[in-house]
Amino acid sequence: MADGMPHAPLVTRADSDAVVTLTLNRAAARNALSRAMMATLRSALEDIAAEASLRVIVLAAEGPVFCAGHDLREITAHRTDTDGGAGFFAATMADCGALMQAIVHHRLPVIAAVEHVATAAGCQLVASCDLAVAGAGARFCTPGVDIGLFCSTPAVALARAVPRKAAMEMLLTGAMIDAGEALRIGLVNRVVREGAALEEAVDLARGIAERSAVAVQMGKRAFNAQIDAPLAEAYRVASATMVENLLAADAAEGIGAFLEKRPPRWQHR
């Protein structure tokens, strides 16, 4: 049950060839990340990881808010627990960290399609995705400081997506930024007309899905392994991946096709 509506799933799924769209479907609650919502989304990601025919994931949302962050009503309800809510709060943050890492470490690229507002852990969700497309009316903030709860966990994803000082300004002021500013600092990759974010994200996903799946998946894995490593370790990881990739059938096919001036025929292995 979602928001009193029987049988309404918290996350819906739609497949189109090699692209799968997951849509947050808790609009009446501003798509807040309750523990049930996070578990459902993580389960959907796990299911997709096991389906070899899929190439790219798009993450969208129903309703007037992309995601309002953690479910503050759910959190507040547990303040009457015998431990003051400490156990529930710890489990909630662990669930959130696991979800964000599931996106980062997923074998497939994940593209956020953002309309309207993404706040706090909702902004964290966008920052955790590999790519993001925003409608012109989209806005982003990490406003925990306004309610005495610094957005420490959103800061992990935000600081890895945008420059340090841009992240700190968002975190320290809680100020809302528009889609244009999000594009300028690198939180999103593209800004499109309002209402067109999902269409653009799916088009972007289809373009990626046309590439060699083995190359894309190796590349995502190596990128995330090297990005925060010391320079020598980063080159070790990247070099090992290049060797692994060169030994793949698709690399032989792609290089051969380039030299022969013909389109490649990917085997995705």
UniProtKB/TrEMBL annotation:
Single GO biological process annotation from the record: fatty acid metabolic process
Keyword Lipid metabolism attached: yes
InterPro entries, per the entry: ClpP/crotonase-like_dom_sf, Enoyl-CoA_hydra/iso, Enoyl-CoA_hydra_C, Mitochondrial_ECH-domain
One example GO MF annotation: hydro-lyase activity
Pfam families in alphabetical order: ECH_1
PANTHER family listed in its UniProt record: ENOYL-COA HYDRATASE DOMAIN-CONTAINING PROTEIN 3, MITOCHONDRIAL, PTHR43602
Family of this protein: Belongs to the enoyl-CoA hydratase/isomerase family.
Name of the protein in question: Enoyl-CoA hydratase domain-containing protein 3, mitochondrial
